[in-house]
Each structure stands twice: as C-alpha cells, then as structure tokens.
Amino acid sequence: MHALDWHLVNSPHVEALPARLLRPRARANADARALAQAPWGLRRKSDGRFLATYDGCRLHALWHGLAREPGLAEAIAAIDASCTHGGPPWPLPLAGLQERLDTLGLDASYGETSGLALVPEPSRLEFAGYDRYRRPLWLLEPAARAWRRMQRAARADDIVLDAISGYRSHDYQLGIFERKLARGQSVQEILAVNAAPGYSEHHGGLAMDIGTPGEAPAEESFEATPAFHWLRDQAGRFGFRMSYPRDNPHGITYEPWHWCWHPAAPAAASPASV
Ligand SMILES: [Zn+2]
Questions:
Q1: Is the residue at 39 inside a domain?
Q2: Which CATH number covers residue 207?
C-alpha cells in the first residue's frame, strides 16, 4: 500500500491506523512485533492507548483489558466497511459529546455566543504526510491534496511550510482542556485560546495549523515571516483561508497560523444573454 493511500478509519471510541505508523511509538518489543505483522493498529482515542492489531479477520490484543474495551466492534465494522465499500467519508454522530461538554460546564449557549458550530469527526481521513514533529498528518482527501500542492508551490518560491497540526478528535481537544484545567487555568481562560471540544475546525479534517522552520508553533509572530506573507498572498489559490483574522466575530485570538480548506465556490452564473 502506497503511503499516500494510507488512511485513518474513525469510530466513536477507537481509531484504526496503518499499523506501521504506530510501530515507532510502541512501548514494548512485543507490541512492535505485533504491529509489524498486521495492517491495522487500533488505538483508544481518549488517551492513545494501543489496544489491538487487526488483520482483516482476527484481533491480536495489545492490552490485557481488551475484552472489556468499549467501541471495538464498531471500530472493526468501520474498517471492514471502509475496505469493502470505499466511497466518501461521512460525519460520525455527535452523541456523547454533550456529556463531555457538561463536565466542563458548557451548554448550547457556548455555540450561540461564540458563533461556532459543532463539528462532527469524519469517518475516514487521508494521510497527508508528516507534521513538524514527525507525527502523521490526517486531513480529508481534498484538503490533503491541496496541502501537498500548496507546500510544493511554496517550496518552488523558496518558502518552507510545515504542518503543526491537522485533524484532531473531540477526545484530543478535551485532553487539552483537562491538562490546562489541571494546571490551574479556568475554562474561560482556555476558551480564549482553544475552541471547546466539538467546536474546533480541526475536528472536521479541513483545518490545519501551519508553521515554518525556526518559528515557534502557533505564535502571533508567525505573521512577520516570509512564510505567512506567502500564505496571505497565495493560500487562496489552493482553497485555504485564514479562519481567525484579527477581531474575528468568534472572540478567538488572532491566529495567523490557522488555515482551513474550503471547497471552491461554484462559478458565478453567467448573465443571461439578451
Ligand atoms: Zn488551529
């Protein structure tokens, strides 16, 4: 399987990735061996724990509590459906998210006041290369293709763009909140910088954070770099737009590094001939 055909098969609790991508992160030799021998590795979304490998018919446990793990059957069904049907990905249901928002004291009024919408996770994402930290970058197919084209075009102009982050799950965003809360930040302080879990554009697989070597990730100083000037002038050609310019209506801090891919607007209808 060519690397550019790799994908992440998503389900509510568990994600399946090409096992070879998980291998460098395996904590034990036995896990690394199992991951080397199977096409799929299954990972718990809430904390990234390796659960099992899957070869299309058999699960091989990487975790002794596998029998009690919720969401495995759904993950297997998702892999099987993805392999047999292909077709475009669909949005996963949002059930379960509200419970997590309740734990943060957030209700529907957050969406109303921020003007942000709930963003479902897609059922499948494409491998779009590696990010700055050598982690796989996952995006929906058209955004992955546009990102690779844009990165190549920038390089031809002597500009190096690197990905800092692409798709992130609801669970991942919740983890950001939990870590910051544990460090003593309030929910309101965190919301000035991070969208609430479920409301980040990163959940949909079309948004990414972009950086350039030598520049700290996700800092406003990015706007002074040649890479940012190139993006400001050229990103639109590839379908990318900055989501949070200065003084945006969502009350989100200016984010010159955050870009989202949008499908091309349909060509304006030609005026009726007279
Ligand atoms: Zn972002």
A1: yes
A2: 3.30.1380.10
